[in-house]
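forwarding from the other thread:

> can someone predict this with adenosine-5-diphosphoribose?

sure thing
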Amino acid sequence: MTRDVALQLDEQIRTIRRLLHEASSVTILTGAGVSAESGIPTFRDAQTGLWAKYDPRELATPQAFARDPALVTRWYDERRRKCADCKPNPGHLALARLQDEFEAAGKGFTLITQNVDRLHQRAGSWNPLELHGTLWVWRCTTCGEEREERQIPFSAHPPRCGCGGMRRPGVVWFGETLPESVLAAAWQAAESCGLFMSLGTSSVVEPAASLGRVAAAGGAKTVEINPEATPLSSGVDVSVRGTTGSLLPMILSQD
Ligand code: APR
C-alpha cells in the first residue's frame, strides 16, 4: 500500500466513525463477501468434487427440486456441512458489537442480510432480516410447517414432515419472490435511516441492490465496503476498497 493510499484509507475510516457517531439510526446490508473470510463458498465460486458438474443456478430452483428433490437436498446437505464447519469472522463480530452499542445508546439498528448461513446470529447479532431465508430452516411443501433442521447429513433426502410432505430449504430460490414482510421491513429501514452501509455485496441482485439507492433518496449518508467496485460505488458518500473482516474491526475500535 502506498503512503497516499494509506492516508486515504485512514481518512475514510475516520469519516465512517464520525458518521456512525452522528447517526441516530443505521441500516446495514450484508452479502456473501462478509462471510468470505469465514471460508463460506459463494455461488460464484467454482463447485468442487462431486458437485463440479452441476450449475448451482440450476440446482437452486423450484424446478430442480420438483424434478429431483433427492439431488437438490444432497447438494444443500453439502452446503450445510460447509457452513457448520465455518466460524464467524472479525467482521461478523464487529457488527454484533455495533448492534449492542447502538441499542445501548437508544439508537436504531437494522441488519439486513442476503446470507443464508446464520453466521451473523452465531456472532451475536440478533433479529437480522434474512432477505434470502436460511439453510437451517426447512419448510413442508404440503402443510407449510417450518422447522429448524440441524442434523447433517439428513437421514432422508428430502426430510419429511409429520404430515408426510417433503421439506424444502427455507431459502429463496432463483425465480421466487422474497418474503413480503421481510422485504417491507428492509425497505422501511433503508428509507428511514440516517446511515446506510452496504457491506460485501456485489449490488447486482435485486431487490437488495436497490436498498442503497432507497436509503440515499431518503436522505441517509451511505457507505460501501468491498474489495471491488460495484454499481453502487459511485453513488455512495464513502466507498472503501477492502475486506469487511479487516476494516470493520478497525472502524469500530476505540483508537
Ligand atoms: N469483504 C468484503 N467484500 C468481499 C470480500 C470480503 N472479504 N470478498 C469478496 N467480497 C465482495 C465481492 O467483491 C463481491 O462484490 O463480496 C461480493 C460478493 O458478491 P456476490 O457473490 O454477488 O454476493 P451477494 O452480493 O451477496 O449476492 C447476492 O446472489 O448468489 C446469489 O442468492 C445469492 O444472496 C446471494 C445473492
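The CA atoms of residues 112 and 129 lie 5 Å apart. thats all i got for now
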